[in-house]
Design a protein that fits this description.
This protein is an alpha/beta fold. The chain has a single domain, classed as Alkaline Phosphatase, subunit A. Helices cover 40% and strands 15% of the residues. The protein is built from 12 helices and 8 strands. The protein has an 8-stranded mixed sheet with strand order 4-3-5-1-6-7-2-8, with helices on both faces. Helix 8 runs parallel beside helix 10. The longest helix has 28 residues. It is globular, with a radius of gyration of 22 Å. It starts with a helix and ends in a 40-residue tail after the last helix. The N terminus and C terminus are likely disordered. Bound molecules: zinc ion (ZN).
Length: 336
């Protein structure tokens, strides 16, 4: 009898004690930061930041206030200038973390992609963490058709009549739904009307149509950010919000803008509890955006990924990959 009484009681008891000790050790090992890191990644096509500043854009301003901003994020590398200043190479760089000489997209024809060797950053995330849940919601079809991979949800939401204003509303609506009903690790939401309207009415802070497009997208940014904050589990989550654009514009275009600051300067916002505050102290590049997302999610780039970007705008330089360049690359990765 004693034998039976001891075994069922003592074994679970010591197991519980061991568990408690382990829990305490884990607690001590990772003090404040047991929250689950997540990324909301927002792309606004053809968006000049001087126009954002001229617009009534309180949602983007709030993200800047809760994070860090570069308004001269470079869309081209010093190393390679052989790609056009347009969306194909731009979004490829933003989503793969490498420049066009690697991903192979030099214009909007997508004739020689090398996404097999240099895939979308969702694929890098899943390579390390297969359980990550990845979402891509876009209206520019080539992202859906060519660039995205390793997505649990990938949707192109441009209506058949190519109403870009409605398309952006669809993206915001779907993003809100996913944030409310599912558990994304990273959600990429792309808005296209700013570029579309820039081509019709001019990419400039004095174009009232261009400004109105930015203001409509700003409302969508606010809707999506609100859905993020309203998640029942938000208190246990550590969301990083990244916002960028693939290029600016001048007149009603942006092709061949290698020497035009209004075209080749994009912007980069990194926002949230994990982000630094104020202006970036270093030059930033489009390819930094996905590497920053990966770093926030705890993913250190492997050397053989050959990423060109670096993690920027994150407070904690000690967490895996944060502020660190890929192994084998030095601070002058972007060229002299
Ligand atoms: Zn365009």
């Amino acid at each position: 009898m004693i034998h039976f009484r001891q075994r069922p009681f003592r074994t679970p008891h010591s197991a519980l004690r061991a568990l408690a000790a382990l829990a305490l050790a884990l607690l001590l090992a990772s003090p404040a930061d047991a929250k689950e890191p997540k990324v909301l990644f927002i792309g606004i096509d053809g968006c000049r930041f001087d126009a954002v500043q001229a617009a009534r854009a309180p949602q983007l301003a709030a993200l800047v206030a809760e994070g860090t901003l570069a308004n001269d994020c470079q869309i081209l590398s010093e190393r390679f200038q052989g790609s056009d200043t347009c969306s194909g190479p731009g979004w490829s760089s933003i989503l793969t973390g490498v420049w066009a000489d690697k991903h192979g997209i030099v214009d909007n024809k997508f004739t020689a992609p090398n996404y097999r060797e240099f895939p979308h950053f969702f694929a890098r995330l899943k390579e390390v963490r297969p359980t990550a849940f990845t979402v891509s919601l876009v209206t520019w079809i080539p992202i859906q058709r060519n660039i995205v991979s390793a997505a649990d949800i990938a949707e192109a939401l441009l209506p058949p009549d190519e109403d870009w204003v409605q398309g952006d509303a669809n993206v915001a609506q779907r993003a809100k739904q996913v944030l409310a009903q599912q558990n994304p690790t990273v959600l990429f939401a792309y808005f296209g009307q700013v570029d579309e309207i820039g081509h019709k009415h001019g990419f400039h802070p004095t174009s009232k149509e261009y400004i109105a497009a930015i203001e409509r997208v700003d409302v969508h940014v606010g809707e999506v950010a609100a859905a993020m904050r309203q998640r029942p589990t938000y208190g246990d989550e550590d969301w990083l919000v990244i916002v960028t654009s693939d290029h600016g514009g001048q007149g009603t275009g942006h092709g061949g803008g290698h020497q035009v600051p209004e075209i080749r300067n994009s912007f980069l916002i990194v926002s949230g509890a994990a982000a630094t505050r104020g202006k970036f102290e270093q030059q930033t590049y489009l390819v930094d955006a996905p590497v920053t997302a990966l770093a926030h999610l705890g993913i250190s780039p492997k050397a053989d990924w050959k990423l060109d970007g670096k993690a920027v705008g994150l407070k904690d330089a000690n967490v895996a990959g944060r502020a660190a360049r890929p192994a084998g690359q030095t601070a002058d990765t972007h060229g002299p």
